[in-house]
User: What shape does this take?
Amino acid sequence: MTDPGEPTDPVEPIGPVEHSGPEREIGVGPHPEPWPEDPRLDPDLLAVGDRRNVVDRYRYWRREAIIADLDAHRTELHVAIENLEHDANIGSIVRTANAFAVGAFHIVGRRRWNRRGAMVTDRYQHEIHHPDAADLAAWAHERGRPLIAIDILPGARPLEHARLPERAVLVFGQEGPGISPELLAVCDDVLEITQLGSTRSLNVAAAAAIAMHTWMRQHALGGEGSGSAGAM
Assistant: This one.
């Protein structure tokens, strides 16, 4: 999971979540007794209810049990996010990575990153930190994982016409400046999302979601070569 020395994640909320609209509760309340005899279940959650940001099949499960179950079917895809400016979009990218069962996410640069947008989904993911682009490149090369930059740059190929490598690491930069020259220099390919409107670029979290879903369509959602669990 997270590298040693990483600051402790925020405590995942257990209890009603506040909304500005009509009041509603997320999740489930206390489980009726007698409780199921299942080692995956957390007695504390059974007693007080489970209001976490998890799908219904994981209600009342221990965090470790959820991680173990995810590990059995994570995809081969990895994502790498450059962390130079404490960009709030990093958390949103991690949340999408969790939704698609990405094998791991990589933080390149500053170790501490803005976790707010992750909505605590990072607690169920494998996180790998790299101090710089060279370290990420060495890690990826050793494991035969191509680094695929997603950015709007001269010479970039359209994402929608590209076949993404099954063991790809999709690389994303910061909102605004994009991928740094140092990180771009170690990438094996550069792809961009074709746009038809007037805006110069998509929000980086939106672009990451599109790129990840493109990989999913090709490799994990019925496409050729789909279905294998990810390896680190």
In short: Residues 18 and 24 are 8 Å apart (CA to CA). The two ends are 11 Å apart (CA to CA). The chain is about 25% helix and 15% strand.
